[in-house]
Every structure is written in structure tokens, then in C-alpha cells.
């Protein structure tokens, strides 16, 4: 069966690096009308040349998140068919004991990962309810299922919460024909931050980590994008409230 998103409006957050770039390119290649946002415009020019419509948006501001979805709806068919919540990260933070963590450090990571997901879901649902259709795919993490390799408490808590939100939305929105699922990537080097983290482990710890993966390698951003496409496509029309771990087998 061929995947085809022609005529579909797809909204993707966090498009400037890593998973976001790969996901955006995948949907564009399959005919989707792709609208993306990020707080940084690092990769905008390349994606815009491929046909994506992009905007700089601070998704930690819920009003800005809602306004972006309104702009997308006004610029397209009037409704978002597929929402991909990919924005996230650790805001440059590194591991430290919880007693040394400030309120601001906690808040910013929660807002980037959980707050943005909540705001965009809330914004797209009215349109999806009108058409009684729609798909939400939230990018979580292996840290949604266990302790985070980053050691960052807020990141682990936020990713667990994204999974919980997804399951609750699946239950709430299913009667309206709207599906919500989660992709949980394992450790994948996709940008400067994850490359720095991987390098910091050193050869010995890298070897140990790879031996814990059944396929004995790290994954790629394209492999995450493929999982997102599956959840967004007509290949998964009876799959709802699920989490798909893309980690090579643990």
C-alpha cells in the first residue's frame, strides 16, 4: 500500500533539527501540505525550498502556540489533519542533584516538552472535532518508560507526562474519530547536543550502551520519521493510545 498525504495539512513543531527535519521531509515527499514551527530558524531555508511553510514560534507561550495553529488553519483547508508534537529538549541543561535544581530550570524543561505539546493539542482539537477526524503523534522518549540517560529530572518527568497525556487524549477524543499515539525514540544522535552527550560517554561507555541494544547500533532520525508516518497514515487506523519504542530492542 502506498502512503499518500496529498491534500492533507500537517503541522509539525520543532522542525529545525534532528527528528523535525527528517519528519518534515518525509511528509513533503508524500504530498502533504506541511506547516512547521520552531523557536530557531536554523534549517528553515532548506525546508522552505522543498515546500514547507515555516514560522518562528515560542511554544512555551500558549498564546503563541494557539495563534500559530490558527494561522495554519487559515492558510490551508481550515483544519489540521495531522499534528506532530516534536518540540522538546533539555534547554542546554546537564545532570545535577535535585537539591541543586532551581525552579526556573525545572519549569523551562517542563514547558518545552510538556507545555508545548498540551498547547498545540488543545489548539487543533476543535477543528478536528468539526471534521470528526484527525491524528496526533507526540514524540516522547525512552525516558517516558524508564529513568532518563540525561539524568535530568524535569526531562524524564515531562516525557512520562507526554505519554500520559497521549493516552488520556486517545480515550477522550476517540469518539470523535481522532487518534493520539506516541513515538518513544531511544538514544539517537541528531544534533550538536546529542553528539556532545554521546562523545562525553567515551569509548568504553559507548560500547556498553551499544551492547544493550539488540541491533548493536544507534538509530537514525529517518527511522523515527518512518514511525511517525505509520501512526499518521491509514496503516494504523485502529491504533490509538499506544506508544511505539524505536530503540533497536532492549
From TrEMBL:
Residue stretches spanning the membrane: none
Protein name (Swiss-Prot/TrEMBL): SDR family oxidoreductase
Family designation: Belongs to the short-chain dehydrogenases/reductases (SDR) family.
InterPro entries named in the record: NAD(P)-bd_dom_sf, SDR_fam
Alphabetical list of PANTHER family matching this protein: OXIDOREDUCTASE, SHORT-CHAIN DEHYDROGENASES/REDUCTASES FAMILY MEMBER
SUPFAM superfamilies with a match to the protein in the record: NAD(P)-binding Rossmann-fold domains
GO molecular function terms noted in the UniProt entry: oxidoreductase activity, acting on the CH-OH group of donors, NAD or NADP as acceptor
GO terms under biological process: fatty acid elongation
CDD domains: SDR_c
Amino acid at each position: 500500500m502506498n502512503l499518500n498525504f496529498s491534500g492533507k495539512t500537517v503541522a509539525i513543531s520543532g522542525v529545525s533539527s534532528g527528528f523535525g527535519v527528517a519528519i518534515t521531509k518525509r511528509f513533503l515527499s508524500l504530498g502533504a501540505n506541511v506547516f512547521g514551527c520552531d523557536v530557531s530558524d536554523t534549517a528553515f531555508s532548506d525546508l522552505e525550498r522543498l515546500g514547507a511553510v515555516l514560522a518562528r514560534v515560542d511554544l512555551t507561550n500558549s498564546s503563541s502556540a494557539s495563534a500559530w495553529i490558527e494561522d495554519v488553519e487559515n492558510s490551508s483547508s481550515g483544519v489540521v489533519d495531522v499534528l506532530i508534537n516534536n518540540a522538546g529538549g533539555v534547554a542546554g541543561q546537564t545532570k545535577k542533584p535535585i537539591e541543586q535544581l532551581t525552579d526556573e530550570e525545572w519549569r523551562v524543561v517542563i514547558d518545552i516538552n510538556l507545555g508545548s505539546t498540551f498547547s498545540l493539542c488543545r489548539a487543533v482539537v476543535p477543528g478536528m472535532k468539526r471534521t470528526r477526524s484527525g491524528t496526533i503523534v507526540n514524540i516522547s522518549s525512552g525516558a517516558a518508560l524508564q529513568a532518563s540517560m540525561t539524568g535530568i529530572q524535569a526531562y524524564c518527568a515531562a516525557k512520562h507526562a507526554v505519554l500520559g497525556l497521549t493516552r488520556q487524549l486517545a480515550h477522550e477524543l476517540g469518539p470523535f474519530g481522532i487518534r493520539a499515539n506516541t513515538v518513544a525514540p531511544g538514544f539517537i544522535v541528531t544534533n550538536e547536543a546529542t553528539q556532545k552527550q554521546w562523545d562525553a560517554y567515551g569509548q568504553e561507555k559507548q560500547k556498553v550502551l551499544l551492547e544493550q541494544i539488540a541491533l548493536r547500533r544507534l538509530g537514525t532520525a529517518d527511522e523515527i520519521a518512518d514511525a511517525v508516518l505509520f501512526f499518521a497514515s491509514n496503516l494504523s487506523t485502529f491504533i490509538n493510545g499506544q506508544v511505539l519504542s524505536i530503540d533497536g530492542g532492549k
